[in-house]
Amino acid sequence: MHVPDGFINAPVSAATGVVAAAAVAVSLRGARRELLDTAGGPAGDAGTGGGERTAPLAGLVAAFIFAVQMLNFPVAAGTSGHLLGGALAAILVGPYTGVLCVSVVLLMQGVLFADGGLTALGVNITDMAVVTTVVAYAIFRGLLKLAPGRRRTVTVASFVAALVSVPAAAAAFTGLYALGGTTDVPIGKVFTAMFGVHVLIGIGEAAITALTVGAVMAVRPDLVHGARGVAARPLELRNTGPVATPGAPAAAPAAARSADEPGATAAPEPAAPAAAAPAPTAAPRSSARRVWLAGLAAALLCAGVVSFYASASPDGLEKVAADKGIDKKTEDHATKDSPLADYGVKDITDTRLSGGLAGVIGVGATLAVGTGVFVVVRRRRSAAEPAETS
Amino acid sequence: MGAGHAHQLYREGRSPVHTLPPHCKIAAVFCFVVVVVSTPREAVWAFGAYALLLAGVAAVARIPAGFLLRRLLIEIPFVAFALLMPFVAEGERTTVLGMSLSQSGLWSAWNILAKGTLGVAASVLLASTTELRSLLLGLQRLRMPPLMVQIASFMIRYGDVITDEMRRMRIARRSRGFEARGIQHWGVLAKSAGALFIRSYERGERVHLAMVSRGYTGTMPVIDEVTASRTQWTYAAALPLTALAVCLTGWMLT
User: Fold this and answer.
1) Cα B122 to Cα B118: distance, rounded to the nearest angstrom
2) What is the per-residue pLDDT across B76-96, written as a single tens digit (0 to 9) for each?
3) B41 is in which domain, residue-wise?
């Protein structure tokens, strides 16, 4: 991701340097305000000016982003990815502080670790700190405005915000490249490559960001800057505890028994524990369903709509193969005559429609197979569990 | 914390390069990189001259070549990217070792490799001859906003603390038999990240209160004011000025 020296020419580097400096200057002002009225601080602090809160808090948040970029998330078969953190910072501490912290991280990476060139610092900050953070925060707040007041909305909104922010940064990079790239790889190719790769990265980033924001929301909802309106529910005392607690131990054996022999004992059980038992499990399951639905929607969107705009020219490997004449020897795939061969539906002539349809059908088929495997595995596991416990 | 506060990036020494004031060094490195970037890529010999200049600086600073080369490994992702260039770029094609490559792509790959490597080497030399604290003071002398310098210094100071906290969480996870193998374990890792954020933020609040109780008002007093004499500036300017001469010759010859 970090752009090295000599990749973008001097005038564009200088111009982005000015943009980055302006953005940092604006964020320095804004961050003071944001960190002042974060709910974590005591209320009396506001009188003392509060500007002195900025440095320690923003510094520690920057250290957090620096550290969390080293946390590896395994994907599959030995590969792993890590968080970029722009969207996460924007949602957790607000856009100004987010820009500031990511910029400081980039500056230190450039100066100390030589990761990203010194002259490309402006490009890096504009692209990765400003665009990512601002786009993510705008989308996040917009979605919260559309569907306010629910904690699950926060999870979904942070998913979408992070999902869009990464390809947005890739698009911004392509724009800068179009203005001042030093190589003559055609813009369309750069865009396709950057965008395609970063949509994938964005999905990972979105999942991790949503999970992390959810984890913080569960423990300290007051620390999630972007969702302060949501979390501002007053604490309430629940005095119905003594009634509920004796019922709980009774419910557990009842549920276990009814799982063991469904027909025999289920009927005489009183209705109350049965009704009480699903209540605590309802929340995580339906939030999982939300995430699941959002993921499905994103996958369908990518497959059905975004693939319209994907390049029709062969991708990198196919192109290299064609250039070098490797592909003359390749044999046709065994499923070449299948109705979905080469990502198109056979009897539909409009290539775009056919490609999109093939994408949607592919997602559906993958989903069906995946769900089938999942259901089988779960059934086997849940069949094994009562045997272990009893 | 007991073993001194020097960062592992810094290499202790008392050479002339180490003792130069930090802002002179930062300015020199920045100008050097600007000069390198604006050199025409056809002047291949000029990049060799730059590399010799940097090798000279490393020799004066007594930085071993192995140390420098190991730190250069950070640019490997871009080497891979640059190697792809000749295959995807457009333009006239030429044949090398039986492969059809784009000529301008080859030039671009060379351009990125040479300029990127020189930039990385210059930054590595800067970071290994300058202490972190004085590097930040140097940035402040070069008119970077004081608040930004403070944020950066907090980040540097607590970066290792937070990283250690993350390492302790990993040890705690592993000692409970957890091993992240795939996407299904992201939830656990993300909860760790969330906990790390809360810990970092709360630590920031505690640090702030501790500093306020010791009289902090939002600005750091500068105790060790660094000034540079004319001779020191001249020493520091030697590198970018020589590079500039090389660059101008490069422009005239191509």
Assistant:
1) 6
2) 777 777 777 777 766 666 666
3) 16-139+226-253
Q: What pairs with residue B62 in β-bridges?
A: none
Residues of chain A found within 8 Å of residue B121, distances taken between Cβ atoms = 114
**The pLDDT of residue A248:** 44
Q: Across the interface, which of A61, A182, A184 has its CB nearest the CB of B201?
A: A61
Do the domain assignments include residue B220?
Answer: no
Furthest-apart CA atoms within chain B: distance in Å = 72
What does pLDDT average to over chain A? 71
**What's the predicted TM-score (pTM) here?**
0.71
Which position has the higher pLDDT, A325 or B48? B48
Q: Is residue B45 part of a domain?
A: yes
Contact B209, B20 (CB under 8 A): no
Burial A90-113 (b: 16+ CB within 10 A, else e): bbbbbbbbbbbbbbbbbbbbbbbb
Residue of B nearest to A3 (CA): B78
Considering the domain architecture, whether residues B239 and B196 belong to the same structural domain is answered as: no
Average pLDDT in the A293-308 region? 65
Q: Are residues B62 and B79 in the same domain?
A: yes
Tell me which of 1.10.1760.20, 3.40.50.300, 1.10.150.130, 3.40.50.1000 is the CATH number of domain A10-231: 1.10.1760.20
Question: Which residue of chain A has the CA closest to B216?
Answer: A52
Residue B165 resides in a domain: yes
User: Domain check: are B58 and B167 in the same one?
Assistant: no
A6: left (phi over 0), alpha (psi -120 to 50) or beta: left
Q: ipTM of this complex > 0.90?
A: no
* pLDDT tens for each residue of A179-236: 877 776 778 877 888 888 888 888 888 999 999 999 998 888 888 887 776 655 556 6
Same domain (yes/no): B27, B109? yes
Burial class for B47, CB neighbours closer than 10 Å (0-12, 13-18, 19+)? buried
B161 & B235 share domain: no
pLDDT at A258 > cutoff 60: no
Question: Which residue in B99, B202, B217 is closest to A52 by CB distance?
Answer: B217
- Is residue B5 in some structural domain? no
A87: contact with B, CB 8 A cutoff: no
